[in-house]
Amino acid sequence: MSKEYLDGWLKSDATREDSIMLKRLYIDIFGNLVDGVLFSQIMYWHTPVKGGGPRLRIEREGHLWLAKNYDDWKEECRIPAGTARDSLRRMENLGIVIKRVWHFGQRKVPHYRIDPERFQMLVNAVEDGTIDKVRQQLLDAAKQRKKEAKTRKKVSDGSQQIPQTTSKCRQPTDISVGSQQMQMLAANTCIRGLPTDAIYTETTNTETTTETTPSSLSPSTTESIDSASPPPVVVAADVEMIKSEVQKLHLTPQRQADLLAKGATYALAVAWAAQGPGIKNPGGLAMTLLKGDGPPEQLIQVATVALELGITDRQKAEDQLNRRAFAEMEASRRESADELTEPPELLAESKNDMVSHLPVSSETSGQSADQAGNGLDYKPGGGPFSMRDIWQIVDGSLSLQLNKSTYELWVRGTRAVSFTDGVLTLRARSGMARDELARRFDHSIKLQIGKLTQEEVRLCYIADTPGAIPRGIGVPGSIGLAYTNTEGQEQRGLLGPQ
Length: 498
Fold this sequence. Notes:
Elements: H1 2-13, H2 24-30, H3 33-46, E1 58-60, E2 63-67, H4 72-77, H5 81-94, E3 97-104, E4 107-114, H6 116-128, H7 131-156, E5 166-168, H8 175-188, E6 223-225, H9 236-247, H10 253-260, H11 264-273, H12 282-291, H13 297-309, H14 314-339, H15 387-401, H16 404-411, E7 415-420, E8 423-428, H17 431-453, E9 458-463, E10 471-472, E11 481-486, E12 489-494
Helix pairs in contact: 2-3, 3-5, 6-7, 9-11, 11-13, 13-14, 15-16, 15-17
C-alpha cells in the first residue's frame, strides 16, 4: 500500500501547484539557502501569467510592485516573519530588491520590486566567480551609509552628547579698568536683541599680571572656550551684516554671543552648515560644531569671500570662490605653459589621463579621441567655465564635502568624457562606483553643476568595467562598455554612436 501511494505521488507530483522553483543561481547570489528561497518566490511574482499579462497588479512610480507583509511569507514559502524581515533587509542592502512602504487597503504594507540592473550585475559576478567579493563590498557600503545616516540624525536632532571643555577667564587686578574696557567692547559689538553685557571672548594660556591689562575680558560668571591662538577680531559691521543668518538658528542670547565671539566668518560658516534639508535642530547642530571641530573648511572659505563682498548669499559666494579657484588654476596653467619647451600634448601621462587636464589647443595634432569633438569645451551661457572645468570644480567640491573613505571609494577617478545635447557623460572607475554615483550623489552633482551653468544639465554615468550598464540618460557618441541585445542574443561591446 505504501509503495503504491509513493508511486502515485511521484506520478502526480509534476502537476502539483504548491512547488517552489529554486535555482542554484539564487543561492549563489545571496550565499545562503533562505535568501535564495525567498528571492525565488519574489521572482515568481514577477513572471507573466499564461496569457502573457503581468502577474503583478500594483503600479506606482512607473513600475509594478509586489505588496507583502512579513507574515505572508510564512504562508507562501514557510519562512517565519522575523527570518523574512532579515532576509529582505539583506536583499535591500545588496540593492537587488527595492522597497517602499505604501497604504494597501486600510494599512501600510511593504512593496517590493527587483532592480534589473543590480540583478544582472550580481548574475555576472556569479558567472565571473567574483560574487563573494562583490557581495561583501555591497554589504559594507550599505553598512557605511547607515552609519553616516545615523550620525547625521544624531547631530541634526541635537541628541549627540558633546564633551564640554571650559575654563574660567582670569580677572584683572584693576576692576575699574576691566569694567571700562568691557563696556567699550559691548558698545562696539552690540547686537539688537542681545544684552550688552553678554559679550564673551576666548582666553589664552598667558598669565596676566598687575602691570599688564588683559587683551580679552569676560564676566566672572561666564565660561569661554579654550584656545591656543589669540582671540578673533570682532568687527561690528560684519556682525551686524550676518545677524539675520545667526538668528535663524534660534539660539539663546548667551549662545549667540558665544558663537559671534569666534568671529563673523566663523559664525557665518556655522550658521550655513547648521541649516539645510533634514536638519530638525539647527541650534543643536550649531553648538555641536562650535564645541567640536567647527564647520567644514570649504564653508569657512566661502564665508570669507561673502564678507569680502558684503553679502550673506551662500550661492553667490560659492560661485565667486569657484571663479577665483579657476582663475588661479588658469594662471598656473599659463605659467607652466610659458616654461615648456615641448608640445602640451606630450605632457599627458597616458591617453586616459588626457581628460583630467585643462583643455589644450584644438589644433594639436596629437589630441586624444576622448577630447576630439566631445563637447567638453562648450562654455554654458558664454561664461568663463567649460564643461570640463565645471566637472573639475564639482569633483574638487565633492572631495571636500564627503569623508575621505567615501570619496576614495566611489568618486575619485570619475572623468567627464563628453557633453552632447545637454547631457554630460561621466565615466566611473567601475560598475559599482557608477551605481553609487547614480544612487547617492546624482542630486548633489546636478545641483552644483546647475549653480555653475545656470541651465539644465542631464547626467549619464558609464563605467570602465566590461559589462557595466549606463545609468541616467544615454548619449550618442559616448564611449563605454555595455551589454546590447541583438535578436535575442546577448553581446558585449562598445557603447558608441547609435
